[in-house]
Amino acid sequence: MSKETILSVTEVTRHIKRQFEQDDILQNVWIRGELSNFKHHNRGHMYFTIKDEQSRMQAVMFAGNNRFLKFKPEDGMKVLIRGEITVYEAYGQYQLYAREMQPDGVGSLYMAYEQLKEKLELEGLFAPDLKKPLPNYAMRIGIATSPTGAAIRDIVTTVRRRFPIANITLLPVLVQGEGAAPSIVKAIRQANALNTFDVLIIGRGGGSIEELWAFNEEEVARAIFESTIPIISAVGHETDFTISDFVADIRAATPTAAAELAVPELKELIRAIDLQKLRLRRALMEKLSREKQRLSQLQKSYAFRYPQQLVDQKEQELDRIYDRLEREMRRLLEKRIDQVNQLTKDVMRNHPNRKLVNSKEQVMFLRDQLLRNMKLQLKDKQNQFQKQMQTLEVLSPLRMMERGYSLAFVDTNKLVKSVTDVKRSDEVQIRVMDGTVKCQVVDIKEETLLKVDES
User: Fold this and answer.
1) pLDDT tens column, 57-100
2) pLDDT of residue 257
3) Which of 4, 204, 252, 419 is deepest in the core (most CB within 10 A)?
4) Cβ neighbours of residue 21 closer than 8 Å, sequence gap 6 or more
């Protein structure tokens, strides 16, 4: 054998445990068998053996699971147990860890109970917001139960003791066995048809699950749900839960508790009423005292002691206020008139006619100014013209001829300005002040008359 295949006992045990934990059947299994070696430990846990004719198995049910058991397990009891099977490592043995336990023989009923409960809950028959409130003071109480059972006696006794003024009507029904469920349904529907009850109690005393089974029937549950009368379910003892308890408007742990829920304690009501009367009387007396004190203060006040003086004062005050009001109105009126006058002046000052007159005056002023400027300009131009005419007069050739100067022209009327403009034998016309002299050039002599400073 190689070392790789060698495992410790713990390793093998844990390996086997994992195999158990991976099996879905072993993790949630129902087992039928007989209890033996039952031991209820001081810490609340239950240890026992579950066995049949050929095998046995160790089992444990922890306190957290067994506290809801409705029976006390004991050796030799046939039971149905639901739980998981796994390995207890300390001893290396497998055992059952029980979560639920039922006496054998009622297992099928329990299954039917759970299935119906789940179905009706999904349909909303247990919804808290559909529960009808109980009346505060139920005067007409219907009781659907066995006329010969202990439940009717407990309910009647309790109601008579707590609220003797209430009327009790018994609706006799079968509370167990064949025909019980239809009997209960008929009673509920009869009560609703009569419409004379403030509240209806249905129930019975304690018993086995088979004896209580009529209250787990679907037809009973639906009749309770359809009832317009508030229903108190009081079936069995405090640990017994039936479908009727979930559908009813309120569940009572016992028939006596149902009677206590249905009616108040009359003596307590009387005491409460007396207490309220006392409080009301005290409150009225205190209020009366306060009002008397207030009246006394008012009677001592100035208005009540000297009413005429108060009237005179108020009359005088009224006159003063009236005068003040009149002055204020007059002042406001004058102020408004001043404002109107000022606005009228502003309007007149800005009137279009006024604007038109101003514009015309402006136009006349500008026109006069323009004419004045034009005359000045004309006179100035005339002066300049006279000066220029005088200058031209001084520079005119005719004026120069009058001073003895003449102009010489060749045949082509070209002014002779230089000796180079003529040649010998050319005819020259000399224009003088009073005519023209024709001459012929006989000699040309060049000489300088005007010396030009060439430096």
Assistant:
1) 999 999 998 887 767 788 888 888 999 999 988 888 999 999 98
2) 93
3) 204
4) 27, 86
Name the strands in the sheet holding 407-409, side by side, starting at the edge strand that comes first in the sequence: 407-409, 427-432, 435-440
CA gap 151, 211 in Å, rounded: 14
Q: Report the distance separating Cα 243 and Cα 109, nearest Å.
A: 12
SS3 96: strand
pLDDT higher than 80, residue 1: no
Rounded to whole angstroms, how far apart are CA atoms 169 and 285?
A: 45
Q: How many CA atoms lie within 13 A of 217 on its CB side?
A: 20
Q: Which two tokens stand for residue 375?
A: 């005359």
Q: Per-residue confidence at 7, pLDDT binned at 50, 70, 90?
A: confident
DSSP string, 282-302: HHHHHHHHHHHHHHHHHHTSH
Lowest mean per-residue pLDDT among 246-255, 289-298, 347-356, 373-382: 347-356
pLDDT digit string, tens, across residues 263-308: 999 999 999 999 999 999 999 999 999 999 999 888 888 777 778 8
DSSP 3-state of 402: helix
Enumerate long-range contacts of 293-301, CB under 8 Å, 24 or more apart. Answer: none
Tell whether the model's pLDDT for residue 454 goes beyond 50: no
Share of the chain above pLDDT 90, in %: 52
What are the phi and psi torsion angles at 414 (to 5°)? -90, 130
Residue with the two structure tokens 């039936």: 242
Cα-Cα-Cα-Cα torsion 158, 160, 163, 169, nearest 10 degrees, comes to 100
Tokens standing for 222?
């639906």
Q: Is 428 helix (H, G, I), strand (E, B) or coil?
A: strand
Enter the DSSP assignment of 263: S
Least Cα distance to 228 among 139, 131, 117 occurs for 131
Cβ-contact 34, 15 below 8 angstroms: no
Asked if 35 and 75 touch (Cβ cutoff 8 Å), the reply is yes
- In single-letter form, the type of residue at position 428 comes to V
- The answer to whether the CB of 26 falls within 8 A of the CB of 85 is yes
What are the CA-CA distances from residue 9 to residues 6, 12, 13 (Å)? 10, 5, 6
Tokens of 406: 């003449």
pTM of the complete model: 0.47
Total residues belonging to the chain? 455
